[in-house]
Amino acid sequence: MTAPSESESDTNLSPQRRAWADKNLDPEARTLLAEDEKYFLRQSVSTPCLNVIVKAEGIWIEDTAGRRCMDFHGNNVHHIGYGHPRLKRAIADQMDRLPFAPRRYTNGPAVALAAKLAEIAPGNLSKVLFTTGGSDAVEVAIKIARAATKRYKTLSFWDAFHGAGFGSAAVGGEVPADTRTAALIRGSRASKVGLTLAL
Ligand SMILES: Cc1ncc(COP(=O)(O)O)c(C=O)c1O
Q: What is the pLDDT of residue 172?
């Protein structure tokens, strides 16, 4: 399989990484990492996977050998930690009562969350639109900004990550996204400093 470009975030195929894995990983972890390599496409920000985790709680992740590490990266869990009991209870309760609501209908929890976001958002931001994920949110925001400003150019941080969709990758400012697929959306430019906005 082709190796991702070395410029892509924490891709690490170096001999040092291999030596670290040979020294530190137990047989169970090695087997699962080999299976992972067999079935998953290589991704720009996580190739190869570092290790296997079997448990995550609070700030801790635990590997197959029982070693615990503080996780300073996480993904969407930095704020409250892994497996926060209140969040787990709330998710389980909600799944029992109303696991899904089509947008043709409103529902109490959605309105309560929208009201809370409107209350804590800065300035006169008082309307929300829920999307299915971060990439989707960025793309919808670009569409709304374009509609509101009637302009189409965007400027974004160089080497930032805003998601995997066409629109969000276009404002992500990663070199390979531009060079492999040409301009992903019209008018997107990545800058070493700056922010994402419709110009
Ligand atoms: C800053 C930032 N924006 C957007 C995204 C994309 O979110 P999603 O994976 O939910 O599409 C991520 C995901 O890691 C992110 O870190």
A: 76
Residues 6+ apart with CB under 8 A from 15: none
Domain assignment present for residue 55? The answer is: no
Q: Please tell me if the CB atom of residue 48 comes closer than 6 angstroms to any atom of ligand 1.
A: no
What is the value of pTM for the model shown?
0.75
Q: Whose CA is nearest to atom 13 of ligand 1?
A: 163
Query: Cβ contacts of residue 126 below 8 Å, gap of 6+?
Result: 118
Residue 82, sorted as left (phi over 0), alpha (psi -120 to 50) or beta, turns out to be beta
Count the domains in the chain: 1
Q: What angle do CA 22, 24, 25 make, to 5 degrees?
A: 75
For 188, phi then psi, to 5°, come to -85, 135
Residue 51 Cα to ligand 1 midpoint, Å, equals 22
Q: How far is the CA of 32 from the centre of ligand 1 (A)?
A: 26
Question: Do the beta carbons of residue 139 and residue 168 sit within 8 Å?
Answer: yes
Assess whether the C-beta atom of 162 lies below 6 angstroms from ligand 1. Answer: yes
Give the residue numbers spanning the domain of 194.
134-198
Each residue's pLDDT tens digit, 14-29: 888 889 999 999 999 9
- The answer to whether residue 126 is domain-embedded is no
Is 141 inside a domain boundary? yes
Q: Does 75 reside within a domain?
A: no
Sheet (strand 197-198) strand order:
188-191, 154-157, 197-198
